[in-house]
Design goal:
By secondary structure, the chain is an alpha/beta fold. The protein has 2 domains: 118 residues, Glutathione S-transferase Yfyf (Class Pi), Chain A, domain 2, CATH 1.20.1050; 151 residues, 3-Layer(aba) Sandwich (Rossmann fold). It has 15 helices and 8 strands. The chain has a 4-stranded parallel β-sheet, sandwiched between helices. The protein has a 4-stranded parallel β-sheet with strand order 6-5-7-8, with helices on both faces. Helix 10 crosses helix 12. The longest helix has 17 residues. It starts with a strand and ends with a helix. 47% of the residues are buried. GO terms for molecular function: oxidoreductase activity. It comes from Desulfofundulus thermosubterraneus DSM 16057. This is Heterodisulfide reductase subunit B.
């Protein structure tokens, strides 16, 4: 199984854990990732609020580069996935617009490559095959799977049910973890609003953490660098401002899958989180 791999800006910086663990787990599962050559920013998350044409041209350039590899493209970042997938969908629906965008980018995109989320890529290996690779089941972990906004909206590109998606739960259960039912799995965490208007974002993060704690979860699992950043880094500030004491580690699903498969923890970057992951991981041994 081969895919063109679009890491995007976040996975080069604040979401490095996601990039490292995605590459390690994919290699272990026999998924070959070929990084898109000369990739550039896809415009997430602010490009589409500036100009519709810009919001199409930025991802279209990367889609054209991916298409040149002859492979379908996958993007771990939820925001990157959404921008690439939406652009692909809209340009395929409107050949005249695609021609205009191609003139702007100077890179012809023909609509031959599909955009697939990394969740779908790894799930496509098969749950039984994932179970067969597990050497350290995630016993003791009670996971609140958090999808956020971008993976399940809008309908044209959603990867699962918009209200009650299950793909993360299925993968984590195959790795031996327990998952909890909870009501905030697709609620917004504030995204980049946490940078420009923290007074709005902090209550949103607080509600998600509260719901996860009340569900009995001892950690959260996500597939979005910005969601991870908000829930992990801002947890201490939520505690300080709200008088709470949340200690909920936030993992990328690929990190815990790597743990279950016995991969080197250093390769999964489990030690670079704001909320300590050690106590919860001791439950796994």
């Amino acid at each position: 199984m081969k895919f063109a791999y679009y890491p995007g800006c976040s996975l080069e910086t604040s979401g490095k854990e996601y990039d490292l663990s995605t590459r390690a787990v994919s290699k272990h599962l026999g998924i070959e990732l070929t990084e898109v050559p000369d990739w550039s920013c896809c415009g997430a998350t602010a490009g589409h609020s500036t100009s519709h044409l810009l919001a199409l041209a930025l991802p279209a350039r990367n889609l054209a580069l991916a298409e040149e590899t002859g492979l379908d493209v996958t993007a771990p970042c939820a925001a990157c996935y959404q921008r690439l997938a939406l652009a692909c969908h809209e340009l395929n629906q409107n050949p005249q617009l695609r021609e205009k965008v191609n003139e702007i980018t100077g890179r012809p995109f023909h609509g031959k490559s599909k955009v697939i989320s990394i969740l779908e890529v790894i799930s496509s290996v098969g749950l039984e095959q994932i179970r067969a690779q597990v050497v350290k089941p995630l016993k003791g972990l009670k996971i609140a799977a958090y999808y956020g906004c971008l993976l399940v909206r809008p309908r044209a590109i959603q990867i699962d049910d918009p209200e009650n998606p299950q793909i993360i739960e299925q993968i984590m259960q195959a790795a031996g973890a327990d998952t909890v039912d909870w009501p905030h799995k697709t609620e917004c965490c504030g995204a980049s609003l946490a940078v420009s208007n923290e007074e709005v974002a902090i209550p949103m993060v607080s509600r998600i953490l509260k719901a996860a704690a009340l569900s009995g979860a001892n950690c959260l699992v996500c597939a979005c660098p910005l969601c991870h950043f908000n829930l992990d880094m801002r947890q201490l500030k939520v505690n300080r401002l709200r008088g709470t004491n949340y200690q909920l580690p936030v993992f990328y699903f690929t990190q815990l899958l790597g743990v279950a498969m016995g991969l080197n923890p250093q390769d999964l970057s489990l030690h670079t989180h704001f909320v300590d992951t050690g106590q919860v991981l001791k439950l796994v041994g």
